[in-house]
Amino acid sequence: MNDKPIKKAAVGYKEQGKSRAANQKPVEGVKPGFAINHEQMEFERRKLLEEMSAKMKPNKRQLNMMAAVAATEEPVYRKCLDLTLNGKPKENEGTDQHGEVRDPTMRILSLGAGVQSSCLALMAQEGLTKHKPDFMIFADTGWEPKFVYEHVEYLKKAITICPIITVERGNLREDLIKAANPEPGSREEEKSFAGRVPNPPLFAARPNGGRVGMLYRQCTHDYKVIPIQKKMRELLGVKPKYRVPKDTIVEQWIGISTDEAMRMKKARMPWLTSRWPLIEMKMSRADCLQWYRDINKHPMPGKSSCIGCPYHHNDQWKNMQKNYPEDWEDACDLDDKIRHGLKNTETELFLHKSAKPLRSIDFQAAKPQQNLFGETFDEEFADECEGICGV
């Protein structure tokens, strides 16, 4: 066995990027925590620019999107022998080792029941993905549109390769109303709004006008990410408060497509690895829609997101106002009830970025907004999503 250390010059840009990521300056237009390391992004950007003709001049966002897609690959998991503190051999697992290739302990598909994640789930059912998930998990916030719940029930019947599990933290709508209107004299009244509920990114403004602010978003993490991770630990047989064994790797499939590549985020748990099969297959949201048309076998799903998500694009509010009156009234009712949720201030809360009461806005007369994400999210906030909502 060769015990000589590997020379630094022999290490590829990927390994160098991973080891130096914390000390590197971020690529322009790429936020911290992005799934692709900075050095790899720079490499792909330079490569793309060299291959493009002089006539093609992509803007910063387009170039970053193309570089992220080009850099996304299927993760490889390897075994190697490491030593414990006592000098005894111990098996260590990872994605950047040089040992024998292995499979992950478990593959999980995060099912949002929207266009992309449903397409990925059904493609796996049809045998069109390289691997198959062991479980699919749908995180229910309690405030999804009716057609999302109907589509989840359809998928539970159509998909036979693995179980579809529903997890939930509570009802986001009810929790928001309670947080904005605490019982007088209760302990809840003493807490801040964010202390009462993992709040969505609601818009905040004073009644006399001025700058419109935005609350920190915590809802995706608490109502989707955490319930899914808790279920993963349960499926692994790990008890609460116990550590996941070091030799465990859970591969989480997320239904982000090529036109949303900048939404990719690194998994925060050492035992969890995020994977984006649609990007690996170079599929956009339009490609997913075309797949449904070509196969002509499964119903076309709607857009998966909470009824009153503040990230909604104006086109989605317009569609809801016109075609889903019950959901529209539901969103307007909540918008009315959260107005004075912040204590000790005149600042009011709103679902729409205009900081106007939702029911007072006529979206049918509004000009259409064009962006990369169709009707799903406002482009201004598209990169803020965790990659769990809206797919």
> What's the overall geometry?
globular
Instruction: Assess the beta-strand content as a share of residues.
Output: 5-15%
Gross CATH architecture of the largest domain: 3-Layer(aba) Sandwich
The largest beta-sheet arranges its strands as: 6-5-4-9-10
Oligomer: single chain
Structural class: alpha/beta
Structure, briefly:
With 391 residues, the protein is an alpha/beta fold. The protein contains 13 helices and eleven strands.
What do these coordinates show?
The chain is α/β, with parallel strands linked by helices and 391 residues long. It folds into 2 domains: 8-71, no CATH class; 103-384, Rossmann fold. The protein has helices spanning 13-20, 38-51, 60-71, 115-125, 146-158, 172-180, 187-190, 193-196, 219-236, 277-280, 285-295, 314-323, 325-337, and strands at 77-83, 89-94, 101-102, 106-110, 135-140, 164-168, 203-205, 213-214, 250-254, 272-275, 348-350. The strands form 3 sheets. A 5-stranded parallel β-sheet has the order 6-5-4-9-10, with helices on both faces. It has a 3-stranded antiparallel β-sheet with strand order 2-1-3, with no helix packed on it. The chain has a 3-stranded antiparallel β-sheet with strand order 8-7-11, with no helix packed on it. Strand 1 and strand 2 form a beta hairpin. Helix 1 (13-20) crosses helix 2 (38-51), helix 4 (115-125) crosses helix 11 (285-295) and helix 12 packs across helix 13 (325-337). The protein is globular, with a radius of gyration of 23 Å. It starts with 12 loop residues before the first helix and ends in a 41-residue tail after the last strand. Residues 1-24 and 371-377 have low confidence and may be disordered.
